[in-house]
Structure formats: structure tokens, C-alpha cells
């Protein structure tokens, strides 16, 4: 099934939605149309039981080269504040409950790097380049870059990157813990889809709860996070999928999860 958007290409198959950012003329710079379409699409996918995982990607040249500088350049403080620029769209992606994998090839800069970091994990092509170059424009990251990059790679590297605008290549990003793995650029989409299909075949309820648990590690103390995990773990025993998963293991067969 294909969807029609101005700035996105969407394909749905085997429980997975493959979403390509599609503004090649601007290296997929994130303008309001693109972010609005992405937020609306994720809202719709949230309610689509046929989709268990999303892969978000760009082109081989660029995941996204940042927020759209041409759209922002003439804005005043009053406009940015009144529009609460980026807030609604970022929240829509942050609160998406199904897994979303960023498959990053080429540039992931500024808002592009920030968008990838909001996703649940990043698979990087060997040509990926990450950076927060906003300092070169006389501004700063505005979609969570100073916070998320610091949590991923630590203060020293994050501070250096934010203050100098230096880019990190895929190998450095993997060493620093920003990306889960590197794959050859030519295999990136196939590999991301294979991972996404694996996730989509699991119990969707267990998947959502696992995502919630890992994300809680960012916002809680260890004691609170472990307590939340324990309660959610207990609550998984309310679902048929727990019985199915464990019965299937004991009977040495493949589980057939129903999402109930
Ligand atoms: N916004 C708008 N247009 C952009 C863009 C952006 N972030 N990045 C690239 N483009 C456009 C270019 O203007 C160019 O358009 P024209 O052909 O009409 O001139 C086209 O995309 C191709 O780009 P280049 O010719 O520059 O390609 P290159 O290969 O020479 O360079 C690049 C690639 C190093 C990524 C360079 O394009 C670049 O530095 N882009 C800007 C990166 C940046 O500063 N990102 C941060 C944006 S601010 C932000 O994101 C704020 C935030 O945190 C929310």
C-alpha cells in the first residue's frame, strides 16, 4: 500500500512502514511541511494494527541536512516563540509508541541528527556523517541536540561537536555509542527492513512496553526505573501473548502473537 505525501515516500509491507524523507533538492532539510507530514503519518500509523515497526530514512546522500535554514532565516523571535517552532512536531515523534528505527546514510546534521536521535535506535551506513553545526549559523540545536547527544556520547564529545560544528563519521559514531551498528550503504535499507520485520513479528504489546521501559532509563533514577520495569513486567502476564510466547517455547513451536 502506498501513501501520498509532498515530502515523504511511504511503503507498507510485512508489518513495517518504510518512510523516506523526500526533499532531495534540499538534502531533506526539515521544513514545516515535512515535519507536519511526518507527525501526521506517525499519528495515523499509531492506530494501524497492521504496522508493528517504522523505518525512517533519507537518501544515500543525506538522511537530513538539518532544519530548513531558508525557511527559518527571516523569522523573528516573536514568530518562533508564538509558533512554538518545532515543539508540536517533535512531541508527535517523541510520543510515538511503536518502534521507529532511523536508517541513516549520508548527512544527519542539526535537526537531522536530532531527528535520528529521537528515533529508538540508529542504524548507520558506512558513509553516515553526524553533526550539530548550528553554531556555524550563529544559533544552537533546537530539537534536543544538546541534551540527547550529550546522553549518547558524553559531555566531552558532545560539547566539542556543538561548539565547533565538527562532524562525526560512522566509525566514530559507533565507537561513541550514538549508533547501534554500521552496515554498508548499499545494504542499509534491506538490513533496516530485516530488523524491523523481526520486531514487527513480536507481540506488539510487549514491544511497546519494552520501548517504554528503556526510555524510562533517561528520565528516572535507577531505583524508579527498575521499579517501573518490574511493574510493567508483571503486567505483561495479563496478556494472551505472554501465554502464547511461553507455551510456544515449551511446545518447541513458533509463537503466533495476536496483540491481545
Ligand atoms: N536548509 C535548507 N537548505 C539546505 C540545507 C538546510 N539545512 N542543507 C542543504 N540545503 C540545500 C542547499 O542550500 C542546496 O540548495 P541549492 O542547490 O538551492 O543551493 C542543496 O541543499 C544542496 O546543498 P549543498 O550544495 O550545500 O551540498 P554540499 O554537498 O555542497 O554540502 C552540506 C552538503 C555540508 C550538508 C551543506 O549543505 C550544509 O552545510 N548544509 C547545512 C547544514 C546545517 O547547517 N544544518 C543545521 C541547520 S539548523 C538546525 O538544524 C537547527 C536545529 O537544530 C533545529
**Arithmetic mean of pLDDT:** 97
Largest sheet properties? 7 strands, mixed
User: Which ligands are bound?
Assistant: acetoacetyl-coenzyme A
Order of strands in the sheet with the most strands?
1-2-3-4-6-8-11
| Quaternary organisation of the protein chains | single chain
Query: What is the β-strand count?
Result: 11
Rg, rounded, reads 19 Å
Helical residue percent band: 40-55%
| DSSP strand content | 15-25%
Question: Any overview of this molecule?
Answer:
It is a single chain. The chain has helices spanning 32-46, 69-72, 77-83, 87-94, 111-118, 145-153, 155-164, 170-176, 188-200, 204-219, 222-235, 240-250, and strands spanning 2-4, 8-13, 16-21, 53-57, 62-64, 100-104, 107-109, 121-125, 129-131, 168-169, 181-183. By secondary structure, it is of the alpha/beta class. β3 (16-21), α1 (32-46) and β4 form a beta-alpha-beta unit. α1 (32-46) runs parallel beside α4 (87-94), α6 (145-153) packs across α7 and α10 packs antiparallel against α11 (222-235). Acetoacetyl-coenzyme A (CAA) is lined by residues 26-27, 29, 65-70, 107, 109-111, 114, 133-134, 137, 141-143, 145.
